[in-house]
Structures are given as C-alpha cells and as structure tokens.
C-alpha cells in the first residue's frame, strides 16, 4: 500500500512537526529555533503540465519546495500547530513566546507571552493545539494547561490566558480532542483528553478538569482518538488509545476514564520496552479498517489493527533517532519526522519501481536549499538573534534515547496490501 519514501534533510534536530489541514504542506520546528514550511507536490498539479516543479506526487515525481524558513525562536521551537482553517501557524519556543504567523508566508502577525513559572523563570511549552477558531490550548513544563480566547483583542506579548488548569502533577505529554457532541451547534470540540506523568485526564472548555484516572504506574506519552469501532455490550465504539513508555498501547473506552480496559503490546522488551512516542490514525481507505500508526523511540513505525488488537506491519524511519512527528497529509501520504530528517511515505503505484516512479519518470526529491544561513524569509525582528539557547535533547521525554544521524532506509509498508 505504501512502498516508497522521500527523505527531507533538516539542518538541526526536529522537535515538532505539523501538517496543514487542507493543503499538502508540512511545517517543522527545530532545536535551533528555526521553523520551516514545505509544500509537497499534489495530484492536481500532476494533471497539469509536468513542466512545473510541483508536478506529481502519487507516482513519486516532482519537487518538494521550501515555502519559507526563518529563525522563529531564541532557543528551540518545541511545538507547532496549524489553525483550524490552516491560515495561521502557531509556534511556541523555549524563549517563552507563542507566535502566530501566516502559514503561506511565515510573517508573524501576533505574539503571546507564556505565563512564567512560580519562580519567575520561563515555563517552556510542551504542546500547542488549536481546538477551534476561537480557542488555543497551550501546555507547559510546570503542568499548566492554558486556554486562550482568540476572539479577545490583545496587544502583542501582553495576552493572558482566559483559563489555566493543572490536569496532571507532571507536564502534559499529549493532548487529544474529543469529537463534538451530537447537540453541538458549532461542530467544534469542547472536551479533550490529556496525558501527563502516569495519569490520563479529561478537561472541559467551560467546566475545567472533569476527571483524572488512577495511577497507571507507567509514564503515558502519546494519545489518539478513534471512532467507528464495533459497538458491543457497554462499548459505544469510541476509544482513546494511549501510548506508554514501556511499549504498551492501552485502550480507554470513551466516558470510562477511571482506568484502561484493554492492552496491546506494541514493543515490549526485557529492559522495559520501547516508548510509544507519537501516534496517528491511518485513513480508513488506506488502512482497510481501523489502523493506528505508532512512532517509536527506536525510530520505527508500527501499524496496529484495532479490533484484532495486534501489530501487523512496520517500517523504519531512522535506526538511531526516535520518531517525534507522525501524521497523514490531505492526500493520504504518511509523514514521519525524527532526528534530522522528515520522510514522506507514498501510496504504492502499480507498475512503479521501488522508488515510486513509472518507467521513464523521476522520483520525488527534497529541496536542497536547507542551510543555516537561509534566514532571509524572517519578517520578525526578534528572530534574528543567533545566540539563543537550545534544548540539548527532546524535552518531552524522560526516557533517554540514542543520538546520531543513522541511516536513511527505504522500506516498504509490508502486509498492508
């Protein structure tokens, strides 16, 4: 089903990755504070004249263009997210700032100062998420979860959160919105699940923290919602999947948040297993059922079929660096990120070679203009300082991971056909 890969080299370690909700665009945040946005070729472009650089995607041809690149933060860029409509890209860094930029150009339109820690130091961000066109969620190292009302006029750098909660005793490691209820008039989520430390919590936009689970005795790292499952007994066919530091994926029935109800051993081991760093639901038309892709701390990506509750396929993003970002773009391509590379995995084409190209065609390749001095797209004067501090390691994980560039392997999505 997927059997080709394109590798995009980055100039520094990847800390965050975001996929555009409506276009074939991916943005990355780096340890150096840089933010870079790439445009992937589209099928629409493939049907046009192949003379353009964005010629084809499905058969592996074309060019991946850098739309813009800038040093956005003085320190590392820990988090990225697109707004609901994709017009705005929000970034948050260890400089204590959230910046809202135009997704198309990278021009900063607004800034928000993250509330400081109790001792007055920078409370570095761990997660940023646009819940709706009106609400932005921001989690920090101190375990704070701030809610910003984007409709409230505010001056630059002076905005204060509308609400702040502490759903966990430790930092928030993942955030997954729950679908809007059938009675919702807006259609946007008003509740979300978070993981932090060894607990799971549910928070409501209006009522605050609703419930916190029992201690799971394992660090909870990642989460994702999946619906449309078979409704049997008390199950409504909706679950939240949570990835732990010991290689175990736990399933939580929506509405029954006290404790997990199923476990799937994704990457167990005698030494404690491999951490499940990030997850993404595979589009139904690609996974042929309910399938979740799980990015591991060892650089692998495993595919778990929900229902059968077992791993049935895997690929390798990197042999030494863990997977930091994982998702699917609007055309169904998987995008994995970790270390100093982003990989775009393509759907297989009948008759294509192992690189996805048809006879006589060239495969897709990345933009080679990715050097540290490519900062001329920066339209924010605060971003030009090259002396900011950097995080030395991925900040969101307590589990130590091996460092190194590693190999760049091309592997097929076996058993997905």
Automatic annotation (TrEMBL):
What the entry lists under Pfam families is as follows: WD40
Mention any one GO cellular component term assigned to this protein in its UniProt record.
nucleolus
Disordered: annotated span: 39-64, 357-417
For this protein, the record's Gene3D superfamilies field holds: YVTN repeat-like/Quinoprotein amine dehydrogenase
Query: Where is this protein chiefly located?
Result: nucleus
Q: Does the keyword Cell membrane apply?
A: no
Localization per Swiss-Prot or TrEMBL: Nucleus, Nucleolus
Biased composition (Basic residues) is annotated at: 395-406
Q: Where is the composition biased (Acidic residues)?
A: 367-385
The record's annotation in InterPro entries points to: WD40/YVTN_repeat-like_dom_sf, WD40_repeat_dom_sf, WD40_rpt, WDR55/POC1
Does this UniProt record's set of keywords contain Oxidoreductase? no
This protein's UniProt keywords:
Repeat, WD repeat
What family does the entry list?
Belongs to the WD repeat WDR55 family.
PANTHER family hit by this protein: WD REPEAT-CONTAINING PROTEIN 55
- Protein name in UniProt: WD repeat-containing protein JIP5
